Amino acid sequence: MKAFILDKYRKGGALRFGDWPEPAVGDEDVLVEIHAAGLNPLDSKIRDGAFKPILPYRPPLILGHDMAGRVVRVGAKVRRFKVGDEVYARPRDGRIGTFAERIAVHEDDLALKPTNLTMAEAASVPLVGLTAWQALVERAGLRKGQKVLIHAGSGGVGTFAIQLAKHLGATVATTTSTANVDLVRRLGADVVIDYKTQDFAAVLSGYDVVLNSLDGATLQKSLSVLKRGGKLISISGPPDPDFARQQGLNWLLRQLMRLLSFGIRRKAKARGLAYSFLFMRAEGGQLSQITSLIEAGIIRPVVDRVFPFDATNDALAYTETGRSKGKVVVALK
């Protein structure tokens, strides 16, 4: 089959378009013909070698963490899916590879595609949808009447998280650029901070949750927005000891994670706050709940551009500019 292949770690390097062996299909696997694949900053970071210490990848490999497509074969023990089903997924770590014509996905990572979305729209959802769900529902326990600040509201995670937080009954504040103020308001943001003209830390206070996807300076400033007992959740680091334990990292890496996050954890504790790092995981059950919200019209994915499959490197470069509104997708069909 055809695929875009990472031959070696290299910052900003192009993926090679070439032939790759057909996926092996285990008893609990579903073979999917990929119609569309979503792109994420995580793909660039893996390509650049930033995750070599904590993710079990050795080039050559196929990148890609989001896909939508059609089932063409099921393993002997698969019971929830059949040939012909339209599905989508964020394959689990160690089994990524959606920049390809086909992929074998564990049944537990898969969900039926929302019937009211195109393949391209569906491919934009899994990673950002699961990230928002695991941050706001699972970790923060966000509930009606609470206040949440979602940084980078016009990005992939941000556009999804704003809509999910509104559904949960929270008051939502977000940061964005001047050009995207109207977009985030349409998505449901109650308070919009234009970071080009306003300092969110000088405007906001008494928040229950902050979801950070930006740099360390923004992370530090976010502490002042939270009230005592609040939760600061970051998807951009620094990793913490709990993450190191979950990943099964060795002693040396666990100590490194402890040191990297020591400063922010100490400052959070001194203010009566909780800091945690979230590295989302594949979860087909949660994705099915997200499907229900999308089919009910509660959440609508935001897709900035759809590139043809042969322009995957161009799509990746566009994603890296940080200017996309919502997600960038490549279409194979």
TrEMBL record:
Keyword flag Oxidoreductase: yes
Q: Which InterPro entries match?
A: ADH-like_N, ER, GroES-like_sf, NAD(P)-bd_dom_sf, Quin_OxRdtase/zeta-crystal_CS, YIM1/Zinc_Alcohol_DH_Fams
Q: Which CDD domains match?
A: MDR_like_2
SMART domains documented for this protein:
PKS_ER (SM00829)
Q: Enoyl reductase (ER) domain location, by residue?
A: 12-330
Query: Where does this protein have coiled-coil stretches?
Result: none
Q: What Pfam families does the entry give?
A: ADH_N (PF08240), ADH_zinc_N_2 (PF13602)
Q: Which UniProt keywords apply?
A: Oxidoreductase
What is the protein name stated in its UniProt record?
Answer: NADP-dependent oxidoreductase
Q: Which organism is it from?
A: Ancylobacter radicis
